[in-house]
UniProtKB/TrEMBL annotation:
This is von Willebrand factor A domain containing 5A. Residues 337-364 form a coiled coil. InterPro entries: VIT, VWF_A, vWFA_dom_sf. It comes from the Eukaryota. The keyword Coiled coil applies. Residues 284-452 form the VWFA domain. It comes from Sander lucioperca (Pike-perch). Keywords: Coiled coil.
């Protein structure tokens, strides 16, 4: 068959009907509205069906989907998923045009868009809109991520996936993506916008007013699809607690979610300073590290360095263990052990040898093993999960964490481009911990150490939210109860307000107990609805309730006649926000002629960052719910025709493409970063020993370091003070990485009750050419 080779082609020389993607982002304070327009054109001489599988943020509320063909615009409706699929198939069988948008059954951050029957030469433009909240980063920036990379998700063997949507994915190396992306953002806030940063080249920030509370920014042309597009937005003044009340829709019935006002509270708890300084010295710290093939190269090295810092920063008296996983899993100790010089050294030796050589990404089994271990009395369990997030059974993993949320806190780290936001955020949310994403050139260490500081904060317990509203107004929570609070981190609460009152104000009080101290934060807010939010807050509130109900449905396994599922479908249809059980469907019932002839299916490829480095680390032949890899061009079959035989599906988890050049044949160890060199010499107790290795790390000879030691001072005290001076004098830019282990060193020094500390500090300054004061070192 001669292929009509005009227009864009895939790697298999098949035409791609998707020409361009345009994304417009509007950020108001910490809420983002994203409008994506996908432009399709059929340059072939036969009618086409185009299928595009793409990532979205895992917590996005998809709230609008429409298609424009010529002058005709068709707005999609939300319907129960199976009904929507049948309607789509029926429309195509009868020669009509139809458009279907659905969430993957396996993971809420993957969507599939089917554009049914584009006539030869015909164009269509698809508009898709979603709203989402932006996460607060350690440096108070707000993070927006436009996922552009969809890496293959690894399905564990035998998981087969639940029935339902066969989300079939086609991907190509990022450099070969055959369509273009344009991206622009408009930011507005009550407070001035101080800067906007990105991991991608941006055109200069343009302010729209003299107060600098509104600004626009654009992605520079020529985006290469080799990374997710990440924006960090900074406002002047730290974040303040706020409440936004949004009026109900006049067209909806009062008493329903869309007919009543909805309030969104952003809470930033401030903990009493006295309590915060009492860092806990107990806990069971379990580190779970992804060693699948896709972690190869810089990722696994960075993870090893991070584990070194973590192990040196743990408090004496705690317990720990390290698990690593791929297609199988390993642990360093059969069960968690007490932290000591001996166990720390044993663990570090094993960490040094860790490579990304364990195949696929099967995280469920090691998690089950960790949870099967009995908890250690008065040592609260803290789980740290490091993964590039390429798993296919996201919902199953998150369910398991939620089931065990009473016995631990889970801190998650998404490493690299395309890490599943549904998995990383879901682990932390259900595990009462905190999520971090580490992309591009980000250093992993500062983010991980921030999470360790959170884990060392005493757990906040007995959290309750009390509403004080005028007579006649009642409140219905739309978000799950708050299970975790961390200093400086935002908690969001959504609630529906029913009834009327002449009073203008409400009040909400968050009560909790921290290290035995009962504490409360209060926020008074106006009940007068905001003028300009449309129905954004309603959609976010609906999405929050939908996600909670979906979780409940999975826990129950669909018992009680699918009563929860019915509730989700009803809520999804009423609010126009998609869910796991619904889909957007649009059928062009115009009086155009029926489309003749069999349809050819074209899968639009998504960018990926794997493959291309020789043979994959592990290839699994299996029947699973997703197809990764090859393009298919299969004739669509009429309903009732014989279904094609299920293909053997091939999955591989291989090193990321952009690290190909760094694989050298001789494994020469690069010279170690001086900071890590010094840190690696610290003892578990917090002290350093005076020896040639310490002198080398400080860039001195043994004699130079030993000679100035005051006579009455023992060698370890001297070595520890010199190491602290070096950290403060030369590595202040990385303070968040070594702060905890320095605190440990200071505690050790205090316990020694050593004489001549001032003299030591002066001699240490002279040795290193520094000018540190004793109190600046914490002594």
């Amino acid at each position: 068959m001669m292929m009509n080779c005009c227009g864009l082609l895939t790697a298999n020389k098949e035409p791609v009907p998707l020409k361009s993607v345009e994304v417009e982002l509007e950020v108001r304070a910490h809420v983002a509205t994203v409008v994506s327009t996908l432009n399709y054109e059929n340059k072939e001489d036969k009618p086409l069906e185009a299928v595009f599988v793409f990532p979205l943020p895992g917590d996005a509320a998809v709230c609008h989907f429409s298609a424009k063909i010529g002058q005709t615009e068709i707005v999609a409706e939300v319907k129960e998923k199976q009904k929507a699929r049948e309607e789509y198939d029926d429309a195509l069988s009868s020669g009509q045009q139809a458009f279907l948008l659905e969430e993957s059954d396996q993971s809420p951050d993957i969507f599939s868009l089917s554009v049914g029957s584009l006539r030869p030469g015909e164009s269509a433009s698809i508009r898709l809109e979603y709203v989402t909240e932006l996460a607060v980063q350690a440096d108070e920036g707000l993070r927006f991520c436009l996922p552009a990379v969809l890496n293959p998700r690894y399905q564990p063997q035998g998981s087969g996936g639940s029935g339902g949507s066969n989300v079939q994915m086609t991907s190509v190396p990022a450099s070969l993506v055959p369509y273009s992306l344009s991206f622009s953002a408009r930011v507005s806030s009550p407070r001035p916008v101080s800067k906007v940063e990105s991991n991608c080249p941006l055109d200069a920030l343009q302010y729209l007013n003299t107060e600098q509370t509104q600004a626009t920014v654009k992605l520079a042309a020529g985006h290469k699809f080799d990374r997710d597009v990440e924006l960090l937005i900074y406002y002047k003044d730290a974040h303040q607690p706020t409440a936004v009340v949004e009026a109900g829709q006049a067209s909806a019935k009062p008493g329903t979610l869309m007919g009543d006002p909805v309030v969104m509270l952003s809470l930033y708890p401030e903990f009493p300073q006295a309590v915060m300084s009492s860092v806990t010295s107990c806990g069971e710290f379990v580190f779970l590290l992804d060693r699948s093939g896709s972690m190869d190269g810089a990722r696994i090295k960075s993870a090893r360095d991070t584990l070194l810092l973590l192990l040196k920063s743990l408090p004496m008296g705690c317990y720990f263990n390290i698990y690593s996983f791929g297609s199988s899993y390993e642990h360093i100790f059969p069960k968690s052990v007490e932290y000591s010089q001996k166990t720390m050294e044993e663990a570090l030796k094993k960490v040094e040898e860790m490579q990304a050589n364990l195949g696929g990404t099967e995280i469920l089994m090691p998690l089950k093993h960790i949870y099967s271990q009995p908890c250690i009395p008065s040592q609260p369990r803290q789980l740290f999960v490091f993964t590039d997030g390429e798993v296919g059974n996201t919902k199953e993993v998150i369910n398991l964490v939620k089931k065990n949320s009473g016995s631990h806190r889970c801190f998650s780290f998404g490493i690299g481009e395309g890490a599943s936001s549904a998995l990383i955020n879901g682990l932390a949310k259900e595990g009462g911990g905190h999520a971090q994403f580490i992309t591009g050139t980000d250093r992993m260490q500062p983010k991980v150490m921030q999470s360790l500081r959170f884990a060392l904060q005493p757990a906040v317990v007995d959290i309750s939210v009390k509403w004080d509203l005028p007579k006649g107004v009642s409140v219905t929570a739309l978000s799950p109860p708050i299970t975790a609070l961390f200093q400086g981190q935002r908690s969001l609460v959504y609630a529906q307000l029913t009834g009327k009152s002449l009073a203008a104000e409400g009040c909400v009080t968050v009560k909790y107990s921290l290290a035995g101290h009962p504490t409360q934060n209060q926020l008074h807010f106006s009940l007068k609805p905001a003028e300009d939010t449309g129905i954004t807050v309603h959609r976010l509130g609906a999405r929050s309730l939908i996600r909670s109900l979906e979780m409940e449905e999975r826990e129950r396994g669909g018992e009680r006649d699918g009563e929860v599922k019915k509730k989700v479908v009803e809520l999804s249809v009423q609010s126009g926000v998609s869910s796991a059980f619904t889909a957007f469907i649009a059928v062009n019932k115009g009086n155009g002629e029926a489309i003749q002839g069999p349809l050819v299916r074209r899968n639009v490829p998504t960018p990926r960052l794997w493959g291309g480095c020789g043979p994959p680390q592990s290839i699994k032949m299996m029947q699973g719910p997703m197809v990764f890899g090859g393009m298919q061009s299969n004739m669509r079959m009429a309903r009732g025709a014989c279904a094609p035989v299920a293909k053997q599906r091939m999955m591989c988890d291989s090193p990321p493409m952009f690290q190909c050049n760094s694989i050298s044949i001789e494994h020469k160890q690069p010279p170690r970063d001086p900071l890590l060199q010094l840190v690696s010499l610290q003892k578990a107790s917090g002290c350093w020993v005076l020896d040639p290795a310490l002198a080398a790390a400080l860039g001195k000879t043994s004699e130079e370091v030993e000679k100035p030691k005051p006579a009455l001072v023992n060698q370890e005290v001297w070595a520890t003070i010199v190491a602290l001076i070096w950290l403060h004098g030369f590595k202040m830019d990385a303070q968040e990485e070594w702060e905890l282990l320095a605190m440990k060193a200071v505690s050790w020094l205090r316990a020694q009750n050593a004489p001549c500390v001032t003299e030591c500090v002066e001699a240490g300054n002279a040795l290193l050419g520094c000018n540190m004061q004793k109190d600046a070192l914490g002594l």
